[in-house]
Amino acid sequence: MPLIPTCRIAAGLLLAALTAGQTMAATIKIGEINSYSTLPAFTEPYRKGWQMALDEINKAGGVHGDTLEVISKDDAGKPSDALTAANDLIAGEGVAFLMGGFFSNVGLALADYAKQREVFYLAGEPLTDAMVWQDGNHFTFRLRPSNYMQAAMLAEEAAKLPAKRWATIAPNYEFGQSAVAVFKKLLSAKRPDVEWVGEQWPPQGKLDAGAVVQAIAATEPDAILNVTFGADLVKLVREGQARGLFKDRSVVSFLTGEPEYLDPLKDEAPVGWIVTGYPWYTITTPEHAAFLKAYEDRYHEPPRLGSIVGYTLMKSAAAIIAKAKDTDTESLVEAASGIGLDSPFGPIVFRAADHQSTLGAFVGTTAVKDGKGVMVNTVYKAGGDFLPSEAEAASLRPKD
Amino acid sequence: MSLLLAQFLAGLASAASLFLVASGLSLIFGVTRVVNFAHGAFYMLGAYLAYSLTTHLTGPLGFWLGILAAALLSGIIGGVLEILLLRRIYHAPELFQLLATFGVTLATQDLVILIWGPDDLVGPRAPGLTGALPILGQFLPTYDIFLIVIGPLVLCLLWLLLHRTRFGILLRAATQDREMVGALGVNQKWLFTSVFALGVFLAALGGALQLPRTAVTHGMDLSVIVEVFVVVVIGGLGSVPGAFLAAVLVAELNAFGILIYPAISLVLVFLVMAIVLVVRPYGLLGRREGAARAPLGALLRPWRPLHWVGSLGVAVVLALATLLPFGLGRYGLGVATEILIAILFAGSLQFLMSVGGRASFGHAAYFGLGAYGAALAVKWLGAPMELALLAGPALAILGAALFGWFCVRLSGVYFAMLTLAFAQIVWSIAFQWVTVTGGDNGMLGIWPPRWAARAPTFYWMTLLLTAAVVLGLRHLTFSPFGYALRAAWDSELRAEAQGLRPKRLQWLAFTIAGAVAGLAGALFAFFKGSVFPDAIGIGQSIDGLVMVLLGGVGTVSGAVIGAIAYKAGSIWLLSQTDYSRLVLGLLIVFLVVLFPKGIAGSLQAAWLTIRTRRPKTGPGA
Amino acid sequence: MSALLEVENLAKSYGGVHAVRGVSFALEPGEVVALIGPNGAGKSTCFNMLNGQIRPSAGKVRLDGHDMTGLGPPEVSRLGVGRTFQITATFATMTVRENVQVSLLAQAGRAFSPWRRLAAFAVDRATDLLELVGMAEAAARPAGELAYGDLKRLELAIALATSPRLLLMDEPTAGMAPGERIILMRLMAKLAKEKGIGVLFTEHDMDAVFEHATRVMVLDRGQLIATGTPALIREDATVKAVYLGEGLLYGEPGP
User: Fold this and answer.
1) Which of A121, A217, B569, C236 has its CA 20 to 30 A from that of C3?
2) Which residues of C touch B (CB under 8 A)?
């Protein structure tokens, strides 16, 4: 196996000196950063997604005749490594702008870097609301539906349930904390009769499933909100099923419908949970069908949500460059504000007021089909419907 | 009542795997005195192998065979590793084995991804044990019952092995007195190998038995190893019953902790570990063990001030470093600044290790306190950078003085573990006190003021501080205080008999090292413009150790060279390959085997050899 | 008026085992007193209590009338007690001269001093001490490389560095060549005589004991069973009984 799959071989420190003499004026360099070594389950499909988009763009003649080139870096899941990588890309490689990010804290760090160095940053995955609201800045845009949006989508469904007593389980870090807080707020607003009877905050990746399940069961909730994912989710599902936690209870769960997290569970996938996710097998829109075919032809495997994020992020980048007609930061920021484009999920807009895209998510219930976990009764919820108005969103941002 | 019982039983079930892994670690330490960092990697390997085997061998028999075979296979791999790697470095000072096994851990993380792919894998459930039994109105999974039985069962089997077989008697003899076993004519080499294999077998079995409960992931090694360290230290290194007791204690703390205050789970076990170490320094059932490894000091021949060639060299290097901004671009300067900060951090740890004689496993605590001290001063007090650069070290000094007071009472592995516990407590506070520290989102916008914002200016400022402090540390090394400190761990007995007060000296050294690490942290905050809990993480502490050991613990230049080599190497690797951990891990292993004195130490030894070949023969180093 | 060292009913027990029980004696300046007894008689325990390493279970220790019972080794050292150990304790990673220099720090109040280098500290005094024990030639050698006999001499220089009024020497000549032993013992006797240092030592080599001690105390199973001049002790029936059982008095130390 090759050790160096994507990155160019370059002589680290000397590079800064060498790039001054670049000859290919017709190449636009884009810096990309993600947690490749820490979270390959998400970031590998993500990489495949943006690579496919990149090839499509360049095959079609690039952007205004210029070829796009992506220089990709690993942040090892650490904000400080991400900042090193960002500095490397901007100061060393001379890229026009930055994109990527998975963890919320990495995204926030990159956003702050973008603000400090006045660099355009197009974030893909980081879900925290702070990216575009409390800590939003002039230079940062975000593609994926945020914590708030997903919470709003789920709260809408949860409000329809008869359940009055709710318990929550979420990983004990910013993502879990803010997901629970927003969900609570939105659901309580819709249903003042709801009672919050218990909460569990296991450390991310270290869920002590038996004890947590037992503790939640003891609070006798009617319904449960789950925000755990990955290995924690597997433990929760297994212990919960063995101990009868989910019996006669509704469960509403963040992210669980994403193939990244649902596939590993195979026939043990929970049944009847209300989840957000990506049911690529039920989507029939022509935009998605075209994407699906191209992806499967190219990689001989089904896409995951990461593929969609990577693909759409790259397409967004190209659209922004095309509209900006230049690669200086101000032109890019101006072009990105309010730009509209087509994604495999349909048309999306990066809102001018808060730089959040209106990419939506699918909500459905989980089921087991042919020994595999799937989402059924899926509905696409357009992101725009679950965001506060632009004026309201703008008021959430710091004045700068 | 039934809730409490159910919670108790859930805790017992979690304790089983913890005990298996911890008992293996404890056995290995007891006999070979190696703190096997790779123990978590073997736990993970056991789980992955079990996944592969049980998905191929179907049927109830196949499942259990698969679990057992996975553990056996891992044990054999462990034995081979012992023969190929550890045997070569038993003579090296303590901590080098830890460093080497850390390298193995790094490499394994990438190897596992290469072999099994990046996805979380969910193995089959245990045939016949998928249901649950109603107990007092609560459902208890039958697999949990199985685990609850397996823990004490393995404890009994180990007891029988240790007390009723010749192998076991030799093992126990070796745990108590290694020389004697050698004298008995027992082949010590193979005793070590078999103990290592046995320990790894237990770790892998612990991992394999997790298969029906959780997903197999490439991050499970690190999540278990820290907890297992905690268990082994609480139970007493080398004590198998202690490991059992501590595993149950830790698992029950987790189980009941979440009932009382769910968010405290992160910090609770470390608090307990710190308390146990303060009250019973050798753990619940541990005994005081003499160090079997050569102490770090064995590497250090009498210190000597620099030869004039060396002084000239330092001057030249400093001059070149000052001129660097004229030759490097902004990126290069960024890397250079990061390296300077790493030098400061490594230098502080090196001072503690070579002069203070103690290897901290949680030095990141003071780096982090420095970083957060600076950031908090900026965010909450609106302090300018000049003031924040003082506030950071000040907070670090407070932390180091407080924790150090407890830590210096211990030595060796126990000291390392207590420092680790304190660092984890600080980390948990930074991670969980979201309203003040921003939790894992960190604190952003800690940028330097306009005058220092330009890359060259910030670089020069960092260079000035780093050079001044490192030279200061070096001076301190040769000062009366440095020697008194050195005396205190060279021979505590003698130092005390001369009226020196070792604990006070070491406490001051600990605080000085903390202050310097704090300065590094504060600079780091302004360099990155932000602070994150990573800065206090285990990774940061280990980075420091690797830098010092890589460079050579014996000389101040070791910290400098180690920091440059490690930091530049890992930044470069990270930009060149997705398998940086594999490369870095193997590199560390090779360096440890080839240059047990570290880079600078080996250079120094070579230089001394050259000098002593000249007519004026002195005693060779 | 009081003696240099007064020990009163000193006792130490571990659990139910009495290692030392009710030992009392006094020692005058310039006296060279040997404490002998078979292995396990409690000699080392006694020593360790005298210099503060072990806290006595009962009894009093006074130096020049000052009660120093229960003080730790650093405090005892500051009061003027020097000590050598059965297995030499020196600073292996330092040179011979540095060993002595560092030993002078605490008394000079410079142990926490960050100023100047140790190399420039008390060079003359260190040289004098090394000359006294005949180690001046080896001043620049690493202590870790010394032969055992040299280490013993270095340790004596270290112990003398604090200008002790009382010197405790635990088997000062063990492991030395016969010639070296004599030199060391004579040095010890000379120091006691010229500087008025009180010396308490334990020794297995009975020739050394009978030649150099001004007084001999015999310890058996934690109790003093006889005290007197060497000549007296040599003829004491109880002592003979104790030692003949072990076959030690005139032979080589047993296993």
Assistant:
1) C236
2) 51, 53, 72-75, 77-78, 82-83, 85, 89-95, 98, 101-103, 105-107, 110-119, 121, 141-145, 158-159, 161-162
Give the residue-averaged pLDDT of A91-110.
89
In whole angstroms, give the CA distance from residue C148 to residue C176.
Answer: 7
Angstrom distance (rounded) from CA B500 to CA C77: 9
Listed in sequence order, the DSSP H helices in B351-501 are 364-381, 385-407, 412-432, 434-437, 450-453, 455-478, 480-490, 492-497
**Residue in B473, B477, B494 to test binding to C, most C beta-carbons within 10 Å:** B494
Phi, psi of B216 (to 5 degrees): -90, 120
Establish if B482 touches chain C: CB-CB under 8 angstroms: yes
Same domain, A231 and A339: no
Co-location of A254 and A365 in the same domain? yes
Cβ atoms B194, B167 nearer than 8 A: yes
Beta strands (DSSP E) in chain A are 27-34, 67-74, 97-100, 121-123, 140-142, 165-169, 195-200, 223-226, 250-257, 274-277, 340-343, 346-349, 361-369, 372-381
Residue whose entry in the numeric block shows the structure tokens 């050798």: B282
**Spatial separation of the C-alpha atoms in residues A151 and A187, rounded to whole Å:** 9
Q: Does B445 touch chain A (CB under 8 A)?
A: yes
pLDDT digits (tens, 9 = 90+) for A359-388: 999 999 999 999 899 999 999 999 989 999
> Cα Rg for chain B, rounded, in angstroms?
25
What are the tokens at B280? 């019973």
Residues B213 and B316 in one domain: no
A-chain CB neighbours of B331 within 8 Å are 15-16, 87-88, 90-93
- DSSP class of residue C118? G
Q: Do B141 and A231 touch (CB under 8 A)?
A: no
Domain count across chain B: 2
Domains parsed from chain C with CATH numbers = 1-80+164-255 (3.40.50.300), 91-161 (no CATH)
Same domain, A109 and A174: no
Note down the domain range covering B145.
Answer: 2-279
Last residue of a domain, one of B249, B279, B309: B279
Residues in chain B within 8 Å Cβ distance of C117: 305, 475, 478-479
The residue type of C93 is T
What pLDDT, in 10s, does the model give residues A171-191? 887 788 889 999 999 999 999
In this structure, the answer to whether residues B264 and B327 fall within a common structural domain is no
* Closest residue of chain B to C74, computed from CA coordinates: B499
Q: Do B528 and A83 touch (CB under 8 A)?
A: yes
**ipTM of this predicted structure:** 0.88
